[in-house]
Amino acid sequence: MNVHNDMVAIGERGRVAAQALNRLNARKKNLILEAMADAVEAHHDNIMSANARDLEEARNDGLAPSLVDRLLLNDRRMQATIKGLRDVATLKDPIGGIVSQWIRPNGLKIVKKRVPIGVICIIYESRPNVTVDTAALCIKTSNAVILRGGKEARHSNAAFADALIAGGRPKGLPEHAIQLIATTDRNAVKELVQLEGLIDLVIPRGGEELIRAVTQHARIPVIKHYKGVCHVYVEAEANLDMALDIIENAKCQRPGVCNALETLLVDQTVAATFLPRLAERMQACKVELRGDDATRALVPGAKAATEDDWFAEYLDLILAVRVVPSLDAAITHINHYGSHHSDAIVSDNEMAQKTFLHEVDSATVYVNASTRFTDGGEFGMGAEIGISTEKLHARGPMGLEELTTYKYLIYGKGQIRQ
Amino acid sequence: MNVHNDMVAIGERGRVAAQALNRLNARKKNLILEAMADAVEAHHDNIMSANARDLEEARNDGLAPSLVDRLLLNDRRMQATIKGLRDVATLKDPIGGIVSQWIRPNGLKIVKKRVPIGVICIIYESRPNVTVDTAALCIKTSNAVILRGGKEARHSNAAFADALIAGGRPKGLPEHAIQLIATTDRNAVKELVQLEGLIDLVIPRGGEELIRAVTQHARIPVIKHYKGVCHVYVEAEANLDMALDIIENAKCQRPGVCNALETLLVDQTVAATFLPRLAERMQACKVELRGDDATRALVPGAKAATEDDWFAEYLDLILAVRVVPSLDAAITHINHYGSHHSDAIVSDNEMAQKTFLHEVDSATVYVNASTRFTDGGEFGMGAEIGISTEKLHARGPMGLEELTTYKYLIYGKGQIRQ
What is the DSSP string of A75-107? Predict the structure, then answer.
């Protein structure tokens, strides 16, 4: 067995499938998606028993309970997965859409048209529903998909993939349009991300460690976010009640996700008024505070923050707090320590809002709202394949349109260049 | 001297400059560009004597005459360079433009706004005017630029960069907004392309060897085309007179460029009529033909093409010719052997045109026109920083808009996520 050759073969089959997918119209693709949803329903028992095997192995391997929970499929999660598939079928297909078109003085007509990217590889861990969610978005946009799930979810992922293919094929899903990597060999990822010319894009979904492993050897484009070190800056003219509500929501509503708050910056002019109130609110939410000296002078209970805390993505009920002397200092802090994901200012001063929006170099920048809204669903995209902190191609929440590229079609009548 | 540390310092200075550039409005940037053009005029003698040094060293080093010619600056080229700078000043600034905006049911207003990419590194060879052209496009789009030119043009490049900076600084060009790499150490490129977080994008401009050297170690996004293996397919229902004109133009008008024709595909139904006429026309243009067996049966003078010829970018008066049994075979050939750059069909059959446009997986696909039109100027973009065969971010000719990204600005009134 040679992992390199196996992955090349998978890439080549993906390319052929991408050409076939490119011939399907929106109606046909939606029928396929509906049939895939039906098949996941029909394969319910098979999927649940595969999941039971994964869960048993996970417990035997001593996996942390939080990871075991991510693996778990129950009726609610199965229903959500099936609904997700049917929802994707109802979304507008971006493929074939005309981005712009114009006619040149020599009569050449230039049409910039939305087309599939080609072959997309998704590398993920734990949650087996990602198999279904991401395959659906790729098929909807006529992209062949190569799925590489976590070893711990391999039986569930295989059962899901079997259902999708069994449901889709009779309705015209091209052969190899959905391929699940069966081998658990760790070198498979390294090989996949070097398949220049066969795979067009890699999207890793998971923790920072997974993403670094993917990018380390990548020779093909990777769209990703390493982490979400999100900030709220309470400006001098902030509505402090609003600030408390936004901070509580951004920190506590779901602390384990990438758009949760990690570092709070407080303008020195409001620190004395605001920080004692913050401490009270955070204590009620069981949030541990780690502050700089100025914060600790006002909140004696706070632990001392170190340099590492400003870079930290806690994903937990911990909040780093720093008092800053100015708007500029807040922006400088965010651009230096942040992850360019989601950052918010709370302020009633329009000039400060404008400067913050303009100068914070992040994918999504908020005025007077919680960072938790960085999400394809909350943005109204209908679906999300991930969130990007890249600057090229896709930035912020990625929906269907971000899974497309464009090409130029040029219509002539024999024009030659002078 | 430590190249790694030097390049990191240059990247860090670029980041600071990018923030300062982000504060300039369009009017200010245009004044800077005009002042840069004035300075290039004022530094004329200095630039010409620097160029004379490069030319002398090039001749002493025994550089090929074609490379020496690329280095050469004369009055015509100087005038074109200065005009280019002034033209960029007159173009519309894409920065700050609103891509789209909408309001969510919860009242959040989402604005998708065009912003600079940040720090862009241009790696190029020989032609010193690239220093001016690319710096102008980057400054116009508020991107800091790091220029790494060829060793052979180093005196000319330095003289141009000095002029640009001397002209721009008094008008508000931020310090280090334009940085020219002075060292000729080959490791500089390897270091630059690994500066994740400091440089946002690398654009190599030059031959395939240069581009492979850049991509080999790249850890940051590279937008490029390795080569242009462009095709014309003469379909069964082609206007043969038009086909001859298009082929002559695409092959001969400027054979050394990436959008020139390299392989001709002829449908078998018209081969017997068309190929003798082609042979005559190509002979008149001094083009060497390399054909498959079917071609050579009809054109006895043609050399035998090997598998390598189908992949070849000759950049010379040589044309590979293959007879294909069908439209599908032509498309399969192009997608397999081509470089996804520019490909054309000559045909009066609408169905064939449509299939070709849809299934050829290239950045620009033509019906009844020469491939030579793949160019920012010919597309009406006003300026061009290069041509991309990438699928992500920018595909085909790249103008000002392709040097931008976007960010989401979200305006709330205290919204929190439920």
Answer: HHHHHHHHHHHHHHHHSPP-TT-EEEEEE-TTS
A19, A200, A395: residue with CB nearest B407: A395
Instruction: Check: CB of residue A192 under 8 Å from CB of residue A8.
Output: no
pLDDT digits (tens, 9 = 90+) for B397-406: 999 999 999 9
Tell me which chain A residues have a C-beta less than 8 angstroms from the C-beta of B364.
407-408, 410
CB contact under 8 A, B200 and A357: no
Q: How far apart are CA A236 and CA A239, in angstroms?
A: 9
pLDDT in tens, B283-333: 999 999 999 999 999 999 999 999 999 999 999 999 999 999 999 999 999
- Which residue of B407, B411, B418 to mutate against A (max A Cβ within 10 Å)? B407
**Which pLDDT tens digit goes with each residue over A281-338?**
999 999 999 999 999 999 999 999 999 999 999 999 999 999 999 999 999 999 999 9
Closest alpha carbon within chain A to B12: A336
Q: Which chain A residues contact residue B250 at CB under 8 A?
A: 416
In this structure, is the dihedral angle defined by the CA atoms of residues B15, B17, B20 and B24, taken in order, positive or negative? negative
Contacts (Cβ under 8 Å, ≥6 apart) of B153: B54, B71, B125, B126, B127, B128
Query: What are the residues whose beta carbons fall under 8 Å from the beta carbon of B14, sequence distance 6 or more?
Result: B119, B144, B145, B146, B176, B179, B198, B199
Of A19, A201, A370, the CB nearest to B392: A201
> pTM for this structure?
0.96
pLDDT tens digits, residue range B107-134?
999 999 999 999 999 999 989 999 999 9
Which is it for the CA torsion B87, B89, B95, B100, positive or negative?
A: negative
Of A389, A369, A350, the C-alpha closest to A232 is A369
Chain A residues whose CB is inside 8 A of the B108 CB are 369, 373
> What is the distance, to the nearest Å, from the Cα of residue A198 to the centroid of all Cα atoms in its chain?
23
The reply to whether residue B410 touches residue A246, judged by beta carbons under 8 angstroms, is no
- Cβ(B344)–Cβ(B366) below 8 Å: yes
Q: Tell me the percentage of chain B whose pLDDT exceeds 90.
A: 95
pLDDT in tens, A210-266: 999 999 889 999 999 999 999 999 999 999 999 999 999 999 999 999 999 999 999
Q: Nearest residue of A to residue B379 by CA position?
A: A104
Q: How far apart are CA A293 and CA B11, in angstroms?
A: 32
AA letter at A142: S
What's the rounded Cα separation, in Å, for the pair A239 and B414?
Answer: 9
Chain A nearest-CA distance from B255, in A, is 13
Contact B407 A416 (CB under 8 A): no
Q: What proportion of chain A, given as a percentage, has pLDDT over 70?
A: 100
Domains and CATH numbers, chain A: 3-224+393-411 (3.40.605.10), 230-373 (3.40.309.10)
- The whole-number pLDDT of residue B66 equals 84
3-class secondary structure for A28-66?
HHHHHHHHHHHHHHHCHHHHHHHHHHHHHHHHHCCCCHH
* Partner-chain residue, chosen from A396, A411, A417, that has the shortest CB–CB distance to B408: A396
Below-50 pLDDT ranges, chain A: none
Q: How far is CA A81 from the centre of its chain?
A: 17
* DSSP one-letter code for B374: -
Locate the chain B residue with the closest alpha carbon to A242. B414
Interatomic CA distance for residues A395 and B68, integer angstroms: 43
Handedness of CA A236, A240, A246, A249 (dihedral sign): positive
pLDDT band at B52 (very low <50, low <70, confident <90, very high): very high
CB A20 within 8 A of CB A143: no
Question: Which candidate from B253, B358, B367 shows the least CB-CB separation from A411?
Answer: B367
| Percentage helix, strand, coil for chain A under 3-state DSSP, each rounded to 5 | 45, 20, 35
